[in-house]
Specification:
Layout (H helix, E strand, L loop, with lengths): L5 E4 L5 H12 L3 E6 L3 H7 L8 E5 L7 H13 L4 E4 L14 H33 L2 E6 L3 H4 L7 H20 L5 E8 L5 H9 L3 H7 L8 H12 L10 E4 L7
Parallel strand pairs: 1-2, 1-4, 2-3, 4-5, 5-6, 6-7
Helix pairs in contact: 1-2, 1-9, 3-4, 4-6
Keywords: Oxidoreductase
Organism: Histidinibacterium aquaticum
Family: Belongs to the short-chain dehydrogenases/reductases (SDR) family.
């Protein structure tokens, strides 16, 4: 379904990003698998993929110049992209209302740097690139936290960052539709990744969280990957701009 397409996936070394990168490669895409420090994780995502369809790319999204440099290198290595998946994100379990001013500032600055500032610079670069190419597909991994907030108020910064980037994605969807740029927002619930497992520990353990979920289980990362691949196929253009909830009916809008 994705034969001949070249797609950049950020945060491909673990969790949702790793699953997406692997799924895209299995469907025939050439994948640029971005990682911050975990090269082994990105390599694991591309294990078994022919060398000409697997590109590992390091980039530090915690720095102001890291996003620009990484995207430019992706273009240099590939000659052009057909799709972009913005998945990389951080979540801290501090920086809440009752924490110190210093902790609040540090957490919010780090969270917004990766989840909003770097993500938005990559989004801008992708839009500019796709306009020159006559179109492209963008998938942004958001969160149900962007719609309903978070149950753990210590992660308030994460919820705010995901809502901010969701608005940026929606703006691109409406503003550049006639340029052939299609933008899809995937909003997972509790996915079976390290980030969610760490979150569960802050809530009293995995079973406590699972008991709150309608299906009684975390969302498999493969569900997110399959949906991302479908969006990137270009077979659902008029779904552009939609926020796609993947939470096992635990949060129905």
């Amino acid at each position: 379904m994705l034969d001949g397409k070249t797609i950049l996936v950020t945060g491909a070394s673990k969790g949702i990003g790793q699953s997406i990168a692997r799924e895209l490669a299995e469907q025939g895409a050439r994948v640029v698998a971005h990682y911050g420090s975990d090269r082994a994780g990105a390599a694991a995502a591309m294990e078994g993929v022919p060398g000409d369809r697997a590109i590992l790319l390091q980039g530090d999204l915690a720095t102001k110049s890291g996003a620009d440099r990484m995207f430019e290198e992706a273009l240099s290595l590939t000659g052009g992209l057909d799709g972009f998946v913005n998945n990389a994100a951080v979540m801290h379990f501090s920086g809440g209302i009752d924490d110190s001013d210093e902790d609040w500032d540090r957490v919010w600055e780090e969270t917004f740097q990766v989840n909003v500032f770097a993500a938005s610079r990559l989004l801008r670069a992708a839009v500019r690139h796709f306009r020159k190419r006559g179109g492209g597909e963008i998938v942004g991994i958001s969160s149900w936290a962007a719609q309903k907030g978070v149950t753990n108020p210590q992660t308030i910064g994460y919820a705010a960052s995901k809502a901010a980037f969701k608005a940026a994605l929606q703006t691109v969807a409406t503003g550049y539709a006639r340029d052939g740029i299609h933008t899809y927002i995937i909003a997972p619930g509790v996915v079976d990744t390290k980030m969610s497992r760490d979150f569960a520990e802050s809530q009293g353990g995995r079973k406590v969280v699972e008991d709150r979920l309608t299906m009684g289980e975390f969302v498999p990362p493969s569900d997110i990957a399959a949906l991302a691949a479908f969006c990137l196929s270009g077979r659902c253009r008029h779904l552009s701009g939609a926020t796609l909830d993947v939470n096992g009916a635990s949060y129905v809008r």
